[in-house]
Design goal:
Layout lengths: L4 H8 L10 H16 L13 H14 L5 E6 L2 H17 L1 H6 L1 H9 L11 E2 L2 E2 L3 E2 L3 E3 L15 E6 L9 E2 L5 E2 L3 E4 L5 H4 L2 H13 L2
Parallel strand pairs: 1-6, 1-9
Antiparallel strand pairs: 2-3, 4-5, 5-6, 7-8
């Protein structure tokens, strides 16, 4: 069920993807899946309201939960937009029973926080710290003892605005491994204001071409 991104979206988020896929949806899902598995660089436009953000948020979860990527960054038009993306992902990891059934090594520790980020520091599993981190801009997945570990053990999802602190992101794991973003999804990098300004458009294009 986790080998296909399209299957993952339909199976774990049926309320979000209840309608039949359009040709455009299949195209964007296939492109994202290919980029996650094999790498690559692409830009794809879709009409507003067609589900770009919903697909992007959950595709990032697929990349992390299946162990295909260890550090995923999602970039939004503004910091607030980016933080809403992470909040949406946390909601799924907390309350989605389908995810909890198949990925308990992630969802159970997150549920035990009871929506209180301050509990991260004190959380333990079998006497060992889970080292889970939950802020407005970053989620570090729990690190569990060997017998409970899944493919996403200690992985990271981070978010930022397109004009925010994109460069220099890194994370040092409990084992001392230094992780840097290995996959980036940019969701609708324009605001209404920036879209009407040629200079702002050029600035954002330069950031995407350079920093990202």
């Amino acid at each position: 069920t986790t080998k296909s991104l399209e299957r993952f979206l339909k199976l774990y988020f049926p309320w979000a993807f209840s309608l039949k896929w359009s040709t455009a949806h299949i195209r964007v899902i296939d492109k994202i899946e290919s980029a996650i598995i094999e790498g690559g660089l692409f830009a794809l436009a879709m009409p507003r309201g067609s589900g770009k953000t919903t697909i992007s948020e959950r595709a990032a979860l697929w990349a992390i939960l299946t162990g295909r990527r260890k550090f995923v960054t999602l970039v939004g038009a503004t910091e607030r937009h980016a933080e809403q993306i992470l909040k949406s992902q946390m909601t799924e990891l907390q309350y989605n029973d389908f995810l909890h059934e198949d990925f308990p090594e992630v969802c159970h520790p997150i549920r035990k926080l009871e929506n209180e980020a301050r509990r991260c520091k004190g959380q333990k599993c079998c006497g060992e710290n889970t080292n889970i981190v939950w802020t407005a801009s970053q989620l570090v997945f729990p690190t569990l003892p060997e017998r409970y570990r899944g493919p996403s053990n200690g992985s990271i999802v981070s978010v930022c605005g397109v004009t925010g602190a994109i460069r220099g992101q890194k994370h040092t794991t409990v084992s001392g491994e230094i992780l840097r973003p290995s996959f980036v999804l940019i969701d609708d990098p324009q605001t209404r204001e920036s879209a009407e300004s040629e200079s702002q458009c050029q600035t954002r294009e330069a950031i995407i071409a350079g920093d990202v």
